[in-house]
Amino acid sequence: MHIPALHTLIEQSIRGLQTNDYTPAQIASALGNALGLDTQLVADQTYFIAEPADQPGALAGCGGWSFRKTLFGSDHGPGRTGEIVDPTSDAAKIRAIFIHPDFARRGLGTLILSHCEVAATHAGFRRFEMGSTLTGIPLYRRRGYRDVDLVDIPLPNGEVLPILHMEKFSTGAE
Ligand SMILES: CC(C)(COP(=O)(O)OP(=O)(O)OC[C@H]1O[C@@H](n2cnc3c(N)ncnc32)[C@H](O)[C@@H]1OP(=O)(O)O)[C@@H](O)C(=O)NCCC(=O)NCCS
Protein backbone atom coordinates (compact mmCIF):
# COMPACT_ATOMS: atom_id res chain seq x y z
CA MET A 1 0.00 0.00 0.00
CA HIS A 2 3.00 2.29 0.52
CA ILE A 3 4.61 1.35 -2.78
CA PRO A 4 4.10 4.61 -4.77
CA ALA A 5 5.12 6.67 -1.72
CA LEU A 6 8.21 4.52 -1.29
CA HIS A 7 9.24 5.09 -4.91
CA THR A 8 8.88 8.84 -4.35
CA LEU A 9 10.86 8.78 -1.09
CA ILE A 10 13.67 6.74 -2.64
CA GLU A 11 13.99 9.07 -5.62
CA GLN A 12 14.03 12.13 -3.33
CA SER A 13 16.72 10.50 -1.17
CA ILE A 14 18.90 9.61 -4.15
CA ARG A 15 18.51 12.96 -5.89
CA GLY A 16 19.00 14.89 -2.65
CA LEU A 17 21.81 12.99 -0.95
CA GLN A 18 23.92 11.25 -3.59
CA THR A 19 24.98 14.23 -5.69
CA ASN A 20 28.48 14.39 -4.15
CA ASP A 21 29.11 10.75 -4.98
CA TYR A 22 27.57 10.08 -8.40
CA THR A 23 27.03 12.12 -11.57
CA PRO A 24 23.54 13.13 -12.78
CA ALA A 25 23.91 10.61 -15.62
CA GLN A 26 24.80 7.78 -13.23
CA ILE A 27 21.86 8.68 -10.97
CA ALA A 28 19.39 8.94 -13.87
CA SER A 29 20.41 5.55 -15.23
CA ALA A 30 20.66 3.79 -11.85
CA LEU A 31 17.22 4.93 -10.61
CA GLY A 32 14.77 2.05 -10.87
CA ASN A 33 17.60 -0.29 -11.82
CA ALA A 34 20.66 -0.67 -9.58
CA LEU A 35 19.01 1.70 -7.10
CA GLY A 36 15.39 1.52 -6.00
CA LEU A 37 12.69 -0.47 -4.30
CA ASP A 38 12.77 -4.27 -4.22
CA THR A 39 9.14 -5.17 -3.63
CA GLN A 40 10.18 -8.72 -2.66
CA LEU A 41 11.30 -7.28 0.69
CA VAL A 42 7.87 -5.68 1.18
CA ALA A 43 6.23 -9.03 0.38
CA ASP A 44 8.66 -10.76 2.79
CA GLN A 45 7.76 -8.20 5.50
CA THR A 46 11.44 -7.36 6.00
CA TYR A 47 11.19 -3.76 4.76
CA PHE A 48 10.48 -0.92 7.20
CA ILE A 49 9.43 2.69 7.06
CA ALA A 50 10.05 5.54 9.48
CA GLU A 51 7.26 8.08 9.94
CA PRO A 52 7.79 11.42 11.69
CA ALA A 53 5.76 11.42 14.93
CA ASP A 54 4.37 14.87 14.18
CA GLN A 55 3.52 14.12 10.52
CA PRO A 56 1.55 10.85 10.46
CA GLY A 57 1.55 9.31 7.01
CA ALA A 58 4.67 11.13 5.84
CA LEU A 59 7.77 9.07 5.13
CA ALA A 60 11.12 10.07 6.65
CA GLY A 61 13.04 6.98 5.66
CA CYS A 62 12.93 3.32 4.68
CA GLY A 63 15.18 0.31 4.64
CA GLY A 64 15.24 -3.40 5.17
CA TRP A 65 17.04 -6.69 5.31
CA SER A 66 16.66 -9.92 3.42
CA PHE A 67 17.10 -13.65 3.81
CA ARG A 68 17.45 -13.89 0.02
CA LYS A 69 20.65 -13.91 -2.03
CA THR A 70 20.18 -10.61 -3.91
CA LEU A 71 22.73 -8.11 -2.57
CA PHE A 72 21.27 -4.83 -3.85
CA GLY A 73 19.02 -3.22 -6.44
CA SER A 74 15.42 -2.58 -7.40
CA ASP A 75 12.85 -4.94 -8.90
CA HIS A 76 14.67 -4.39 -12.19
CA GLY A 77 18.21 -4.53 -10.83
CA PRO A 78 20.98 -6.76 -12.18
CA GLY A 79 21.52 -10.22 -10.68
CA ARG A 80 18.20 -10.35 -8.83
CA THR A 81 17.27 -13.78 -7.52
CA GLY A 82 14.63 -15.11 -5.17
CA GLU A 83 17.02 -17.72 -3.79
CA ILE A 84 16.87 -18.05 0.00
CA VAL A 85 20.18 -18.30 1.90
CA ASP A 86 21.10 -20.42 4.92
CA PRO A 87 21.45 -18.32 8.09
CA THR A 88 23.96 -20.75 9.58
CA SER A 89 26.45 -20.25 6.75
CA ASP A 90 25.40 -17.16 4.78
CA ALA A 91 24.97 -13.47 5.50
CA ALA A 92 21.72 -11.58 5.81
CA LYS A 93 21.55 -8.73 3.32
CA ILE A 94 21.04 -5.18 4.52
CA ARG A 95 18.98 -3.55 1.79
CA ALA A 96 17.96 -0.19 0.40
CA ILE A 97 18.20 2.26 3.29
CA PHE A 98 16.99 5.61 1.97
CA ILE A 99 16.48 8.68 4.14
CA HIS A 100 14.55 11.76 3.02
CA PRO A 101 16.96 14.72 2.72
CA ASP A 102 14.92 16.70 5.27
CA PHE A 103 15.63 13.97 7.84
CA ALA A 104 19.30 13.25 7.06
CA ARG A 105 21.98 13.19 9.79
CA ARG A 106 19.46 12.74 12.61
CA GLY A 107 20.31 9.12 13.32
CA LEU A 108 17.53 7.60 11.24
CA GLY A 109 19.84 5.59 8.98
CA THR A 110 21.50 4.19 12.11
CA LEU A 111 18.10 3.39 13.64
CA ILE A 112 16.84 1.51 10.58
CA LEU A 113 20.16 -0.35 10.21
CA SER A 114 20.09 -1.44 13.86
CA HIS A 115 16.47 -2.53 13.54
CA CYS A 116 17.40 -4.68 10.52
CA GLU A 117 20.41 -6.22 12.29
CA VAL A 118 18.23 -7.16 15.27
CA ALA A 119 15.55 -8.68 13.03
CA ALA A 120 18.14 -10.67 11.03
CA THR A 121 19.79 -11.86 14.24
CA HIS A 122 16.43 -13.09 15.52
CA ALA A 123 16.08 -15.00 12.25
CA GLY A 124 19.33 -16.82 13.03
CA PHE A 125 21.89 -14.83 11.01
CA ARG A 126 25.34 -14.14 12.44
CA ARG A 127 26.73 -12.12 9.54
CA PHE A 128 25.38 -9.14 7.59
CA GLU A 129 26.45 -7.77 4.22
CA MET A 130 25.43 -5.13 1.72
CA GLY A 131 26.28 -3.49 -1.55
CA SER A 132 26.72 0.04 -0.25
CA THR A 133 26.49 3.16 -2.33
CA LEU A 134 29.46 5.49 -1.89
CA THR A 135 27.04 7.65 0.10
CA GLY A 136 26.34 4.91 2.62
CA ILE A 137 29.98 4.02 3.41
CA PRO A 138 30.60 6.42 6.34
CA LEU A 139 27.48 5.20 8.15
CA TYR A 140 28.28 1.52 7.67
CA ARG A 141 31.95 1.87 8.61
CA ARG A 142 30.89 3.66 11.75
CA ARG A 143 28.56 0.76 12.54
CA GLY A 144 31.38 -1.79 12.28
CA TYR A 145 31.18 -2.91 8.65
CA ARG A 146 34.43 -3.64 6.83
CA ASP A 147 35.19 -3.19 3.16
CA VAL A 148 35.14 -6.40 1.08
CA ASP A 149 35.52 -5.15 -2.48
CA LEU A 150 34.56 -2.30 -4.76
CA VAL A 151 32.31 -3.42 -7.59
CA ASP A 152 31.40 -1.51 -10.77
CA ILE A 153 27.76 -2.21 -11.55
CA PRO A 154 26.96 -1.84 -15.27
CA LEU A 155 24.16 0.65 -15.93
CA PRO A 156 21.65 0.70 -18.82
CA ASN A 157 23.29 3.87 -20.24
CA GLY A 158 26.65 2.11 -20.59
CA GLU A 159 28.23 3.75 -17.54
CA VAL A 160 28.96 1.98 -14.26
CA LEU A 161 27.88 2.61 -10.68
CA PRO A 162 30.63 1.86 -8.14
CA ILE A 163 29.29 0.22 -5.00
CA LEU A 164 31.20 -1.22 -2.06
CA HIS A 165 30.55 -4.75 -0.86
CA MET A 166 30.75 -4.55 2.95
CA GLU A 167 30.21 -7.05 5.77
CA LYS A 168 29.98 -7.34 9.53
CA PHE A 169 29.88 -10.24 11.93
CA SER A 170 27.21 -10.09 14.58
CA THR A 171 28.44 -9.30 18.07
CA GLY A 172 25.25 -10.76 19.50
CA ALA A 173 24.54 -7.33 20.98
CA GLU A 174 22.56 -5.92 18.06
C1 LIG B 1 23.45 6.96 3.79
C2 LIG B 1 22.18 7.42 4.54
C3 LIG B 1 21.21 6.25 4.62
C4 LIG B 1 22.57 7.87 5.96
O1 LIG B 1 21.38 8.16 6.68
P1 LIG B 1 21.34 9.20 7.89
O2 LIG B 1 20.04 9.05 8.59
O3 LIG B 1 21.68 10.56 7.40
O4 LIG B 1 22.55 8.65 8.80
P2 LIG B 1 22.75 8.88 10.37
O5 LIG B 1 22.18 10.20 10.78
O6 LIG B 1 22.30 7.68 11.11
O7 LIG B 1 24.36 8.98 10.39
C5 LIG B 1 25.14 8.28 11.36
C6 LIG B 1 26.59 8.61 11.11
O8 LIG B 1 27.00 8.10 9.83
C7 LIG B 1 27.95 9.02 9.25
N1 LIG B 1 27.36 9.68 8.09
C8 LIG B 1 26.09 9.58 7.64
N2 LIG B 1 25.94 10.32 6.52
C9 LIG B 1 27.12 10.88 6.27
C10 LIG B 1 27.60 11.76 5.25
N3 LIG B 1 26.81 12.20 4.25
N4 LIG B 1 28.88 12.16 5.28
C11 LIG B 1 29.70 11.75 6.26
N5 LIG B 1 29.31 10.92 7.28
C12 LIG B 1 28.04 10.50 7.26
C13 LIG B 1 28.25 10.05 10.33
O9 LIG B 1 29.28 9.53 11.14
C14 LIG B 1 26.92 10.07 11.07
O10 LIG B 1 27.05 10.58 12.39
P3 LIG B 1 26.99 12.19 12.64
O11 LIG B 1 25.80 12.72 11.91
O12 LIG B 1 26.85 12.27 14.14
O13 LIG B 1 28.30 12.73 12.13
C15 LIG B 1 21.54 8.63 3.80
O14 LIG B 1 22.57 9.59 3.52
C16 LIG B 1 20.87 8.30 2.50
O15 LIG B 1 19.71 7.91 2.48
N6 LIG B 1 21.58 8.47 1.36
C17 LIG B 1 21.02 8.31 0.03
C18 LIG B 1 20.63 6.87 -0.26
C19 LIG B 1 21.79 5.92 -0.07
O16 LIG B 1 22.84 6.04 -0.72
N7 LIG B 1 21.58 4.96 0.84
C20 LIG B 1 22.54 3.93 1.12
C21 LIG B 1 22.13 2.72 0.37
S1 LIG B 1 23.31 1.39 0.62
Distance between the termini: 29 Å
* Number of discrete domains: 1
Q: What is the CATH superfamily classification?
A: Gcn5-related N-acetyltransferase (GNAT)
Bound molecules: coenzyme A
CATH architectural grouping? 3-Layer(aba) Sandwich
Question: Helix-strand pattern, N to C?
Answer: HHHEEEHEHEE
- The tally of strands reads 6
CATH class: Alpha Beta
From the alpha-carbon coordinates, what is the Rg to the nearest angstrom? 15 Å
- Mass-distribution shape: globular
Mean of all residue-level pLDDT scores? 96
SS class: alpha+beta
CATH topology: Aminopeptidase
Uncertain stretches: none
Helix content bin = 25-40%
- Strands ordered across the widest β-sheet: 1-2-3-4-6-5
Q: Specify the number of helices.
A: 5
Largest sheet: 6 strands, mixed
Outline the structure in words.
β3, α4 and β4 form a beta-alpha-beta unit. Helices cover 28% and strands 25% of the residues. The protein is built from five helices and six strands. Strands 1-2-3-4-6-5 form a six-stranded mixed sheet. It has one domain: Gcn5-related N-acetyltransferase (GNAT) (Aminopeptidase, 3-Layer(aba) Sandwich), CATH 3.40.630. The chain has 174 residues and is α+β, with helices and mostly antiparallel strands. The site of coenzyme A (COA) has 22 residues, from α1, β3, α4, β4 and α5.
